[in-house]
Structure formats: C-alpha cells, structure tokens
Design goal:
By secondary structure, the chain is an alpha/beta fold. It has eight helices and seven strands, in the order βαβαβαβαβαβααβα. The protein has a seven-stranded parallel sheet with strand order 3-2-1-4-5-6-7, sandwiched between helices.
C-alpha cells in the first residue's frame, strides 16, 4: 500500500485528507501537536483497515521530523508528503506595525523551515517510491495583499517558492503547492475570531487533492476551487 506523511493531521484539512486516503487504502503517518486529538484521529482512521501511526510533536523539532520519516520507512516508504501544519504568527492576526517578531519567526519556522526540513528528511524515500509526491498547503494570502495577513502570507509565499524550486530540482517527483481556498477551520477562527461568515467544510476541498494524486499533473501551484471545477 502507498504511504503518506501528513502534518497537522488531527483536525481540519489534514484530518479530512487523511480520512480520504485511508478510505483508499493508504497507510498513514500522522503528526500534530495535540496528542489527545491526534489519538482520536488515529482510532477513527484505523477503522478503514489501514495502518496508521500517530506521532504527536512539533514539526520544528528535527528529532520529531526524523521520527515521522522513520515511521513511514517501517510502513514501506514515503509516497506522499503533505506539509499541512501551519502557524499564524499572531492570534488574532494584526497589522504589520504590531506583528510580534517572535510570532513571525514562529510562522517562518513552522511554515517554511520545518516544511523544508521534512522534505529533506524524506527525499531519499520519495525518490525511490517511483511515484513520489509532495504537497505544500498554501494560501491565497501568499499571492494577495490582505490587511493583517502579512506575516502569515509572507511565510506561505516563501513556502510556494521553495515548492516551485523543489519541483524544478526534482523532476522525478510531483511537487504541488495547493491553495485550498476558504475553509471553516480552527486556524481561520483563531486568525479572525470576529468573522462569523459561513465557510466550506475542509472535507469539501479534499477531492481537489485527490484529483492531483489521480491525474498527476506537472509540478506547480494549483488552486483547489479550480481543480474542483475541472480546471487547472
């Protein structure tokens, strides 16, 4: 069975994507910082009959990243790496004039540095997969200028660039940055707690990610709404 590593997998998009892959027979290595929530996810997904290894920890910890890849190796390798774990930099979001620099550093460490570190750790297994793929969960804030989203958007823009260069450097892999669009997630609620407008459930965009895995288009940046509409 193919094996995926998914970070930030205890809830939201990470859990929804993990559930869809488990339903397809994928074995999974899951990461999140909240141990009890990750344990619940592990139990729910194991009901599909696939092997699920849940390892709570912080992706900025190099030892934890090594544990994730080692766990995948024990399951057979790494066919897919999903860098989904994210940090906002400030909760709620603030204008750049008031953005704590320590918060910006945290966003860059989680969203960029740790994502690259996990790619580096997993690359030998991804290359040997024969169908290795990397998905970086991006944001429209990486490409558009929204007030208060500067620090988070800057970190996602950096992630997009790293992902684009990785795709150029690793032609044997598929490397996609994916903007999932608006979703009702805890991350968004923490970012803008006063926004009560309804947003789609994270599970509604999962078919866009599955389309990438099924059709394996060229490495690049994709928007989930366009993929859901049948466009690229």
């Amino acid at each position: 069975m193919p094996v995926a590593i998914i970070t930030g997998a205890s809830k939201g998009l990470g859990r929804a994507l993990a559930g869809a892959l488990a339903a397809r027979g994928w074995d999974l290595v899951l990461d999140a910082r909240t141990a009890y929530a990750l344990k619940e996810t592990e139990a729910a997904l194991a009901a599909h009959g696939t092997r699920v290894t849940a390892l709570p920890g912080d992706v900025t910890d190099a030892a934890h990243r090594s544990e994730l890849v080692a766990a995948a190796w024990r399951l057979g390798g790494v066919d897919l790496l999903v860098n989904n774990a994210s940090a906002l930099g400030a909760q709620p979001l603030v204008r750049l004039e008031g953005l704590p620099l320590d918060g910006l550093r945290r966003a860059l460490e989680v969203n960029v540095v740790a994502a690259l570190g996990l790619v580096q750790e997993a690359l030998p297994l991804l290359r040997s997969s024969g169908a290795g793929a990397v998905i970086a969960v991006s944001s429209d804030a990486a490409a558009e200028a929204y007030e208060t989203w500067g620090g988070y958007g800057a970190s996602k823009a950096a992630l997009d660039q790293l992902t684009a260069v990785l795709g150029a450097e690793e032609p044997g892999l598929r490397v996609w940055a994916v903007d999932p669009g608006d979703m009702a997630t805890d991350l968004y609620a923490a970012a803008v707690p006063d926004d009560d407008d309804p947003r789609p459930d994270p599970g509604s965009v999962v078919p866009a990610f599955l389309r990438l895995l099924d059709e394996r288009p060229a490495s690049g940046r994709y928007g989930a709404p366009s993929l859901l509409e049948g466009r690229r």
